[in-house]
Amino acid sequence: MRLAKSESEAVQLFQTLLANAVHGENVIYVTTEREHLALLPDGAVRILVTAELDTIKERFAARMHGVLPAPVAAMLEKKHGCFDHEPHDFHVHNGCPDAEEICRSIFS
C-alpha cells in the first residue's frame, strides 16, 4: 500500500480499501464520527456498539486514573446516542451478543 500525498487522496485510497474488503480480505473500521460513515461502501457490514452513558463514563474515568475531567464528560454526553438511528446489521449493547457470536452470524 502506498501513502497518500493529500487528504483527498488518502480518503480515496481508504474508500478503495474498504470497497475491496466487501468481497475480499476483511477490514475492521471503527469510527466515533458520524461523517465517517460516508466512507463505508455498499455491502459493508455495520455493527452498532452501544452502552449506557454512565457505563461509558466509568470506562473513560478508569483510563484516566479514576477522574473524568468535565470537558471529557461533556463530550461524551454530547456524542452519546449519535449513531442510534443509523442503519446497522447488528447491535451490540454492553457486550451482548459477544464478538464470537457476531462473527459466526456474519460468516454464515
Explain the layout of strands and helices.
Layout lengths: L6 H16 L24 E4 L2 H11 L6 H10 L10 E4 L5 H9 L1
Parallel strand pairs: 1-2
Helix pairs in contact: 2-3
Characterise the protein shown here.
- The protein is mainly alpha-helical and 108 residues long.
- 43% of the residues lie in helices and 7% in strands.
- It has four helices and two strands, in the order αβααβα.
- The protein has a two-stranded parallel ribbon with strand order 1-2.
- Helix 2 (53-63) packs antiparallel against helix 3 (70-79).
- The radius of gyration is 17 Å and the shape is globular.
State which percent range the strand residues make up.
5-15%
Number of E-type strands: 2
List low-confidence stretches.
Answer: none
Radius of gyration: 17 Å
Strand order, largest beta sheet: 1-2
Shape: globular
The major pleated sheet works out as: 2 strands, parallel
Tally of individual helices: 4
Alpha-beta content class: mainly alpha
Give the SSE order as H and E letters. Answer: HEHHEH
Arithmetic mean pLDDT: 93
The helix content is: 40-55%
Cα distance, first to last residue? 30 Å
